[in-house]
Amino acid sequence: MTEQAHYKPLGGTLFTRGFFVLLFFTIIGFSLIAVRFWKGIGAVSNMTDVFPLGIWITYDVATGTALACGGYAIALLVYILNDWHYHSLMRSAILLSFFGYILAGFSVITDLGRYWNVYNIFMPSRWQFNSALLEVALCIMTYCLVLFIEFLPVILEWLRGLGWGRVSELADRFSPKLDRVLIFFIVLGMTLPTMHQSSLGSLFLIATSKVHPIWHTMYLPLFFLLNCLFLGYGVVVIESTLSSYIFDREYEVRDLAGLAGTGAWIATMWLTLRVADLAWRGRLGMAFAGGDRYSLSFLIEFLLVAFGTLFLFNPKLRSPRWLFISGVLLIVGGGLYRFNVYLIGFNWTHHWKYFPSLAEFLITMGIIAFEFLAYFTLVKILPVLPAQHKPHPAGRAWQGWQSKVESRSNNWHLP
Amino acid sequence: MISQSRRGFLKCFGLAGTALAVARAGFASEGAINDNGVGLLYDATRCVGCKACVAACKRANDLPPEKGSFDPEGLWDAPADLDGKTRNIIKLYRGSESVWSYVKVQCMHCMKPSCVSVCPVSAMQQDADGRVFYDKTRCIGCRMCMVACPFIVPRFQWEKRFPQIVKCDLCKFSEVPRKGKPACAGVCPTEAVQYGRRRQLLAEAKRRTEKNPGRYRSYVYGEHEVGGTNVLYLASAAVSFDKLGLPKLPYEAPAAFSEKIQHRIYKGFIAPLALYAALFFIAVGNREELGEKEEGR
User: Fold this and answer.
1) Which residues in chain B have Cβ-Cβ distances shorter than 8 Å to A189?
2) Which residues of chain B does A118 touch, with a Cβ-Cβ cutoff of 8 Å?
3) How far is B194 from chain A (nearest CA, A)?
4) Taking the domains of chain B in order of start, what are their residue ranges?
5) Which residues of A touch B270 (CB under 8 A)?
6) Model confidence over B112-159: pLDDT tens digits?
7) Do A206 and B249 touch (CB under 8 A)?
């Protein structure tokens, strides 16, 4: 395809100040993971028998993979809604998705009590088909593989350009073959998230008496699916505006506004269906005027998404700044929805409460830092980001981003 | 323009096909519920709170003692609740000087157990006698059983490097093969805990409530809760079941509810395959259209 010529590695030094900040958090996080494996989960986390899932699952897996739905959301937009000028965003979205899902994988291994038994997941004789978690586990593992294959053309392109004799030659020969079958994997890359993102909601269907009635409904799978889609669009908007900003590239405001518009429509659908579901179950009062912490948490979640959506629909608010703000509102509100189901509204009748320990936070932050470290390193080496339409003088652009990164290195590890 | 509308039609057709496949998958038949299992009948009005069953359970199942908060030296086994070392415990509810009751807490052995339904690797299983037991060689420690259990029964060994899930299995592997009944039922001096077939226990429970309406609440907890449990409870007339930590629960088994939805989506794997096919044809069609446009340019 002609698109390939449009991607370029960013180039430049790898070892910036931002790099070391991220490395610092990565090392802290991974040291604490070592403590967890040596002394048990109880030594680092505040999880209890009443709250058996903490932020590792709620954030890293349930929310993290939804934030990593950028690749899924863009693929749907390009291949299904037939809007090909977003194709240039595919590569960075896929790379982010890949790291998002790898992060989930790391966290799952940290969180699994009996991780050495995990091979049982691969033994069909032990599969238990009523388990939504089995579906999630198999689907996510397959999806990681699919994301890797979707990203493979980038690696091959890089290898071809290296001039490493035989290796480049092999890459050259393999590339067209991969291109021919890639569409099968791209479609798989749209089917699998549809399955496991809805199943992340199905996980809590069974907790009929344990998840607060504001959130427990038979439509949890549908709500989780729509939720991951607008989170995906929100993340791509944020990622594009942020990377335009820190890498000093041009903003593609018109393109992004169209993209965000799709997200806004899905968010509208989600908000409408949620209200309809609450009304149908007779829980509107409980949700909107409950006056307790659950009602409050619901209102925050609901209003954040509602305002994000309204801003996106307003044609006057089409600046990069407003797009960014709307994207943040969408993902914070949409992410809070997942927290509400998994943690805040869980075991609501019980007097026990859960708040993650410092070590739990640091482990999650360490894994996120590692993800960003890998992302920022790879976009400098591999042809991931779209080349600019109007080329800046390379030196200026590069110096610009370096000085900005150094002054704002703290902004980096925001998820 | 014509090709545009044709494509639009194909798109709609593909999506409608997917929707149809989802709808046709329909409800899956539910597994038959075995109501001839074995279980316990706990009669709170007979229990004297001696905790002999707690000690016997630990001995039979080789579980270590748990220190109490009042006892830093660990002279007594004094667990405050079920935990990674405790499968069975006696608790006391005290509303006032005259209104109080003991209550025994252990796995309820649901007839349609949630923990079995959520386990991805069949580490939680139900045997032909309705007993729900745990196989540590399969367990990956995901703790979904703990998320799903409406009674918060499965517990986890948080402090261990190589932890397990801990939960009552009615002494399936320990006391029952040796002595024919679980340790708690065997040791109880007042027959507050009785072991037997659920049908017989339920009949016995109803006989007691009918004979002594002043003494008992006229309700057998576990007869209908979450689809019925193999462990049944009788409480004194003065104390409601939710005070004893036995919450009001729907009669439909949560596992039946969730499996119904999950099976509707995934039956025969038709819906995912249809989705893949539909997405595939739309994507290939759109790509061809793009190719035509670029050639035309």
Assistant:
1) none
2) 140
3) 28
4) 2-30+258-296, 38-247
5) none
6) 999 999 999 999 999 999 999 999 999 999 999 999 999 999 999 999
7) no
**What's the pTM?**
0.87
**What are the angstrom distances between the C-alpha of B10 and each of B224, B274, B276, B278, B283?**
50, 14, 15, 9, 11
Residue A251 tokens, joined = 């903003």
Nearest to A42 among B159, B266, B283 (CB): B159
Interatomic CA distance for residues A35 and A43, integer angstroms: 8
Contacts of B275 in chain A (CB under 8 A): 191, 194
| Tens-binned pLDDT, residue by residue, of chain B (297 aa) | 344 444 554 454 455 444 444 444 333 334 456 778 999 999 999 999 999 999 999 999 999 999 888 888 888 888 989 999 999 999 999 989 889 999 999 999 999 999 999 999 999 999 999 999 999 999 999 999 999 999 999 999 999 999 999 999 999 999 999 999 999 999 999 999 999 999 999 999 999 999 999 999 999 999 999 999 999 999 999 999 999 999 999 999 999 999 999 888 888 788 889 999 999 989 888 888 888 877 765
Q: Which residues of A touch B164 (CB under 8 A)?
A: 113-114
Supply the ipTM of this predicted assembly.
Answer: 0.85
Rounded to a whole number, what is the distance in Å from the CA of B85 to chain A's nearest CA?
A: 12
- Element counts in chain B: helices (H) and strands (E): 9, 9
Topology (CATH level 3) of domain B38-247: Alpha-Beta Plaits (3.30.70)
Nearest CA-CA partner of A217 in A57, A50, A61, A345 = A345
Question: Among B5, B15, B140, which would you mutate to test the A interface (most chain A Cβ atoms within 10 Å of its Cβ)?
Answer: B140
Task: Give the domain ranges of chain A.
Answer: 1-203+359-394, 210-354
Q: Output the DSSP codes for B199-239.
A: HHHHHHHHHHHHH-TTTB-S--BTSSGGG-BSEEEE-BTTS
Tokens 């549809």 — which residue? A194
Residue B61 Cα, gap to closest chain A Cα (Å): 20
Nearest CA in chain B to A40: B161
Q: Which two tokens stand for residue A125?
A: 């004789």
Quick check: A82 and B289 CB within 8 A? yes
pLDDT digits (tens, 9 = 90+) for A252-274: 666 777 788 888 999 999 999 99
